Amino acid sequence: MVSSTKSMRLRLNNRHKATIALLLLGGANITFAQTTCTPSTINLSAASQSYSGPINALLPGQQIGSGWAGSTRATGISCPTNIIVKGTVQPADTPVPGVTYASGGADYPVYPTGQSSIGYVVQVRDPSDSQFHPLAPPFVQTWPLPGFGNPIALGFEAQILFVAIGPLTPGTYSLPSKTVAYLHAYDGSDVELSVPGSLLFQGATITANSTGCTVTSASDQAIRLSSVSPSNFSGVGSNSGTSSTVNISLNCDAGIAVYATMSDATDPGNTSDVLALTPGSTASGVGIQVYRDGLSTPISFGPDSSSPGNLNQWLVGRNAGAVSYTIPFNASYVQTENTIGPGSVQARSTVTLSYQ
What range defines the domain where residue 257 resides? Predict the structure, then answer.
């Protein structure tokens, strides 16, 4: 007999993942020119920003708030004589992998703020330049423009903008003060004239009035299947056995489209419509298929992700006003091999919701 002494479990999952890049700093021996120049800290402030809308509608690399949130124009290094030949700006952080911000035909690296869902981009320019340039590793040369000669001071303009690097769940995000760039000045022999000046972001607050759903059913539910005999199957792909029905219940805010993806918790890379059995299962030659909303076609599984357009993601519902949803699931055994070995069967899956 194929026994259901161990049951399949559905675990509701509304997790959102983001990657935080880490900055690794190393030491180096630096020789400065004999003429001593004085570095300064340039402060970059930013107004508070806000976001309103579905949690998952703001994609990685998209702008948060009204635009460039701060602007500064100041001197970063001052020298006693006109000896500066070249100035560069170096990012203080390592870019977030796989995320960029596009503006004005340029791609900006996105840097971590310390909040897992929010990154920042910076643009800089020589005060006499008509165009800003992305702050990008390894260096951005900003001074002097051709024809301006050797200056006595090195300064630049800078602006900062915040972008999403993960879903913004409701709440207030406090972005800490941090150095975002270093300013370097060199003489004609390419010798650095002082320790670097700094561009200091003074911190900001971002408020997310994000919309989504509240799960009102239990987060961990069991679908129990009846015991069946191997003789109940007619060949590979045939089904047998009935199950109990479990429901996921949601209360959702107005103006969002709710999507869902079911994933195989035992084999996360599984994108078929048959759940892999857990290692504790003793039966062989069978799997489990899951059905939703009374449909006759089993669910195909996808990655455990809330990203819009996730593989095998399906629409639960789209609503103009606040609404409640109930999503029913049931399951059956399916023969996967020519020979079935009796024993116990267990599989696990998760459901990840996406609010778009």
Answer: 212-355
Q: How far is CA 97 from CA 3, 55, 215, in A?
A: 47, 22, 32
> What is the per-residue pLDDT across 152-208, written as a single tens digit (0 to 9) for each?
888 889 999 999 999 999 999 999 999 999 999 998 888 999 999 999 999 999 999
- Given this model, what pLDDT does residue 17 score? 35
Q: Are 126 and 218 in contact (CB under 8 A)?
A: no
Asked whether residue 243 is domain-assigned, the answer is yes
Whole-number Å distance between alpha carbons of 267 and 288: 13
* Nearest CA among 51, 58, 318, 339 for reference residue 209: 51
CATH number at residue 229: 2.60.40.1090
The answer to whether residue 32 sits within a structural domain is no
Q: Are residues 319 and 227 in the same domain?
A: yes
**Location of structure tokens 């150095």:** 179
For residue 170, what are the CA distances in angstroms to 64, 112, 208? 14, 19, 5
